[in-house]
Amino acid sequence: xxxxxxxxxxxxxxxxxxxxxxxxxxxxxxxxxxxxxxxxxxxxxxxxxxxxxxxxxxxxxxxxxxxxxxxxxxxxxxxxxxxxxxxxxxxxxxxxxxxxxxxxxxxxxxxxxxxxxxxxxx
Length: 122
Prior knowledge:
22% strand; five-stranded mixed sheet; globular
């Protein structure tokens, strides 16, 4: 239900309350931008809260001709980023969002349910 969009503090710091260590405590799905070059500290922080085997994805240059999306685990994140030569223009995505199957969703959207009324359906 929750997606956190953030970045790792580096040369440009982030507010204390928005540090990756604090946000990861929620274990919500997270998209981390401007941080592929900091993959080692990112992976170490995330492993503490999501576990070594948690799935993650690296989305590189999305919507561009060089687009590449690779799936891995937090344990293999650093090696995967190095192998794929990804250093920037990437999102690191982690959390349950990567494991969702429509049949396993506890709460499904009612937007297209015929019995659900909203502003565009009377």
